[in-house]
Amino acid sequence: MTQAQRSTISAFIVCCNEERQIRRCLESVRFCDEIVVVDSGSTDRTLQICAEFTPKIIHKDWQGYVLQKRFALSQCSSDWVLNIDADEEVSEELQGEILSLLQQDRLGSLKTNGFLLNRVVFFLDRWWRKGGWYPEYRLRLCRRAVTTWGGEDPHEKATVTGDVRRCKGELHHYSFTDLADYVRRMNTLSSNATVSLMRRGASASAFVIISRSLARFCKFYVAKRGFREGMAGLIVAAIEAYSVLLKYSKLWEAKQRHDTKAPQRSECRAADGAGRVG
After folding, report:
1. What is the pTM assigned to this prediction?
2. Domain segments of the chain as ranges
3. Buried (b) or exposed (e) across 109-134, using 16+ Cβ within 10 A?
4. Is 50 exposed, middle or buried (0-12, 13-18, 19+ CB in 10 A)?
5. What does each C-alpha distance from 215 to 131, 224, 237, 249, 253 come to in angstroms?
6. For 54-104, how does the pLDDT look when each residue is reduced to its tens digit (9 = 90+)?
């Protein structure tokens, strides 16, 4: 399919020190007319790898998830935008679906302005289609002219004016390298989430800490059938519960110190975790 037969599309990626994963990500968006990379200070080979795929590489100091993606969106020039993280990959099925939608748009038959993409996590040598992370729909494919980026860190999100529906193809998410990486990322994400809780004046009572942590465990292990993944399902459910315990414990600590805000993120890494800290 030639560019004249379909609407144009820009893929944008915010990243930092992602040499381990970003090549797979970039390969999966080669079909896009433009690839925009916004880097917040990589010191590894990330920038060299990106240069193999696109000349549009922009440095911007890390300002948080919302502002970083808002800036990246502003650098895109195509009819449509596709936001993808460095640890994600557009599946072949999803790529074909996107190209078909762009062709429909060029013919004037597509009235939808945004599409929710379903992320599926690959971790511990398996795809997690049960166990808490699936299905997970994110608004990532949007008509640029009617899209803004908002939310509250670390829960950034796209907002689209008009009709939104779901794509069938999956977005692959290679979220964690191993359990040590998983625990480290949960610690970082919990600190970021605590900042938002402080701003909202959330409670950090013993009941809140215990009940929300147990609820997270039950969601992943029972409601989402994580028990069917054996020991891996038990471990993931336990770490997810631990991440919630961390978030509210850090909130309690900050309140005890009468701080105005919780611990801040110190990393430049832009990719988020497999799921949000609930």
Report:
1. 0.86
2. 3-173, 179-257
3. ebebbbbbbbbbbbbbeeebeebbbb
4. buried
5. 14, 12, 10, 16, 22
6. 999 999 999 989 999 999 999 999 999 999 999 999 999 999 999 999 999
DSSP bridge partners of 172 = 89, 120
pLDDT digit string, tens, across residues 210-244:
999 999 999 999 999 999 999 999 999 999 999 99
What crossing angle do the helices spanning 230-257 and 206-218 adopt, rounded to 10°?
160
Give the DSSP H/E element, type plus range, for residue 103. helix 92-106
Under 8 Å between Cβ of 77 and 19: no
Classified as helix, coil or strand, 169 is strand
CATH 3.90.550.10 fits 3-173, yes or no: yes
Assign 3-class secondary structure to 220-269: HHHHCCHHHHHHHHHHHHHHHHHHHHHHHHHHHHHHHHCCCCCCCCCCCC
Q: Give how far the C-alpha of residue 83 lies from the chain's centroid of Cα atoms, to the nearest Å.
A: 9
CB 134 within 8 A of CB 223: no
CA 209, CA 188: separation in Å to the nearest integer? 18
In sequence order, what are the residues at sequence separation of 6 or more whose Cβ sits closer than 8 angstroms to the Cβ of residue 96?
A: 169
> Has residue 189 got a pLDDT over 70?
yes
Spatial separation of the C-alpha atoms in residues 209 and 223, rounded to whole Å: 20
Q: Which two tokens stand for residue 180?
A: 């040590």
Backbone φ and ψ of 263, nearest 5°: -55, 145
SS3 state of residue 172 = strand
